């Protein structure tokens, strides 16, 4: 896997992320196209100029920088429906300054570590590629950008 380079915007994300400078076999331009396709008129980020700066290896999350507010970053979970979404999709997993994104990622790491410890003790069924019969891991979404009340806080789910 390709790790995020330790740059100002890549520091703190870990090895589950690939930055958009290349280094993997994923079509990075397709990520930006899919984001533009999925964000619909009722979505809080409709019309917002977003730059996809990284994607997660383990799922369909993309990390975006808001071009009109450079201190603001968001993690959105794409559905790859290849069409405009409805409702709350694509979901906003995290939204705030860089420190909020790093805190969200730390929460995911902590949840995965706790699940691994429970699996080793036999108190949780092991996670596999198709999921697990255990309850899903829940990591609270981070919505810390003050002037965006349209993005309600809610749990993000990770398996």
Secondary-structure map with pairings?
Layout: E1 17-19, H1 28-38, E2 50-56, E3 61-66, E4 73-77, E5 91-96, H2 98-120, E6 137-140, E7 142-143, E8 155-158
Parallel strand pairs: 5-7
Antiparallel strand pairs: 1-2, 2-3, 3-4, 4-5, 6-8
User: Taking strands numbered 1, 2, ... along the chain, how are they ordered across the largest sheet?
Assistant: 1-2-3-4-5-7
What is the approximate shape?
globular
Span of the ends, CA to CA: 19 Å
Give helix and strand order, one letter per element, not per position: EHEEEEHEEE
Q: Approximately how much beta-strand content do the residues carry? A: 15-25%
Q: What is the structural class?
A: alpha+beta
What's the rounded overall pLDDT mean?
A: 77
Q: Count the strands?
A: 8
Amount of helix: 10-25%
The largest sheet is:
6 strands, mixed
- The rounded Rg comes to 16 Å
Number of helices: 2
User: pLDDT under 50 segments (min length 5)?
Assistant: 1-9, 149-159
At a glance:
With 159 residues, the protein is an alpha+beta fold.
Explained architecture:
It is a single chain. The protein is an alpha+beta fold. The protein is 21% helix and 23% strand. It contains two helices and eight strands, in the order E-H-E-E-E-E-H-E-E-E. The protein has helices at residues 28-38, 98-120, and strands at 17-19, 50-56, 61-66, 73-77, 91-96, 137-140, 142-143, 155-158. The strands form two sheets. The protein has a six-stranded mixed sheet with strand order 1-2-3-4-5-7, with helices on both faces. Strand 3 and strand 4 (73-77) form a beta hairpin. The longest helix has 23 residues, at 98-120. The protein is globular and about 50 Å long. The model is unreliable at 1-9 and 149-159 (pLDDT under 50).
């Amino acid at each position: 896997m390709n790790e995020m380079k330790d740059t100002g915007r890549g520091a703190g994300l870990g090895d589950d992320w690939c930055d958009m400078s290349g280094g993997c076999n994923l079509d990075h331009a397709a990520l930006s196209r899919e984001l533009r396709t999925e964000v619909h008129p009722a979505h809080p980020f409709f019309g917002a100029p977003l730059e996809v700066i990284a994607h997660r290896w383990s799922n369909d999350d993309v990390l975006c920088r808001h071009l009109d507010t450079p201190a603001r970053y968001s993690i959105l979970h794409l559905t790859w429906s290849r069409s405009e979404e409805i409702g709350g999709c694509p979901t906003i997993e995290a939204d705030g300054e860089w420190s909020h994104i790093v805190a969200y990622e730390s929460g995911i790491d902590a949840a995965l570590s706790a699940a691994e410890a429970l699996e080793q003790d036999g108190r949780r069924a092991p996670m596999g590629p198709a999921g697990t019969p255990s309850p899903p891991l829940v990591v609270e979404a981070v919505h810390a950008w003050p002037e965006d009340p349209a993005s309600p806080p809610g749990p993000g789910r990770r398996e």
